[in-house]
Design a protein that fits this description.
mainly alpha; 3 domains
Length: about 325
């Protein structure tokens, strides 16, 4: 095997299988042209010394292969500032909640110095585990968004038509960044409600000084959760499809209309049905003054959530009407 064949084979080892053959063929053609020009300039035939000199100028096989590959990031420059901001806010909230709950527990229950230090260290270790878990999931979410953005179609310079800047064509354009907030919020919702939902509740000491946990979400909530998961997963699929295609199409409009309709129906059932907040008033009222306060908080949260669902129904209904208008009355330019 010649030195050129070996070099091209080594380059191919660092290339994806899908594009390997075409890139290797291109590199071989460039090398042969370069050697031919070098031979004519030097006035001597191609030999091993000339081949080695040209290959040295090209660089190592890994370097040449890298020049044919797109930038590869876990979280790239586009998302990194947003990632840092989100990490600071979310981790700060988790840390603050952990510190407050630990402080409240220390003030409510009498501890000796030794038991207080032991309790505090235990809570700090739990908080550290929570911070690492949240940070890992946050990295996972942003890595998925980075991948989705890397799949976005770019405009072809040869086929681009300036007339696409106005009229009906522009109203269906989808900018990849416009889908990022939806993707992040949906992934966060999937994570929170499927992993941490059972941990939502009140941690306190009862009248006897014993630590108690009362879950905030009732079993009714978990009957709705599979339907929310289905809507969220389908929404993610639509977000990624819009990033990949770069524009709204009739099928994606109808898909969004179907998702909005399903969301409105589910929210309406939740408003008119039993509360998703656990009704534990009788149990909590028997746990002293703190229990009575928490019972009132749970009741207020239940009422507030139903009001929130009504607002979401209105907002989703407006979006549904807008999509129907875009399907049947197409007028006026708009960039999404």
């Amino acid at each position: 095997m010649s030195l050129i064949d070996t070099y091209i084979e080594r380059v191919g080892e660092n290339l994806p299988a899908r594009d390997r053959a075409d890139i290797q063929k291109e590199i071989r053609s460039i090398l042969e042209d370069t050697l031919e020009n070098r031979s004519q300039s030097a006035g001597r035939p191609v030999d091993d010394e000339m081949i080695a000199e040209v290959l040295r100028e090209f660089g190592t096989p890994r370097k040449v292969a890298a020049s044919y590959l797109p930038p590869r990031y876990l979280i790239g420059p586009r998302l990194y500032p947003t990632f840092i901001l989100a990490a600071r806010v979310i981790l700060g909230i988790v840390a603050l909640v952990g510190i407050i709950t630990t402080s409240v527990a220390l003030t409510q229950q009498p501890f000796t110095i030794e038991s207080g230090i032991e309790f505090t260290l235990k809570r700090l270790l739990e908080l550290l585990g929570s911070l690492l878990s949240v940070f890992g999931n946050l990295v996972f979410v942003f890595a998925i968004v980075e991948w989705a953005l890397s799949q976005a179609k770019t405009e072809n310079e040869d086929t681009w038509d300036p007339r696409s800047l106005s009229g009906e064509a522009s109203r269906d354009i989808v900018k990849p960044w416009s889908q990022v907030p939806d993707i992040v919020l949906t992934l966060v919702a999937l994570l929170i409600f499927n992993v941490f939902a059972q941990k939502f509740g009140a941690y306190f000491n009862d009248a006897a000084g014993q630590p108690v946990f009362v879950a905030a979400l009732s079993p009714v909530f978990f009957t709705y959760l599979p339907w929310f998961n289905l809507i969220w997963v389908l929404s993610l699929g639509l977000n990624f499809a819009l990033i990949r295609t770069g524009k709204w199409q009739p099928w994606s409009r109808w898909f969004q209309i179907a998702l909005d309709t399903a969301s409105i129906i589910l929210l309406f059932v939740m408003v008119t049905g039993r509360s998703i907040v656990l009704d534990a008033s009788d149990k909590l009222n028997q746990m002293g003054y703190t229990g009575q306060q928490i019972a009132g908080i749970f009741t207020g949260i239940g009422i507030g959530l139903k009001a929130l669902f009504i607002v979401l129904i209105v907002v989703t209904g407006i979006e549904l009407i807008q999509n129907l208008i875009r399907m049947f009355w197409k007028k006026g330019p708009e960039i999404l």
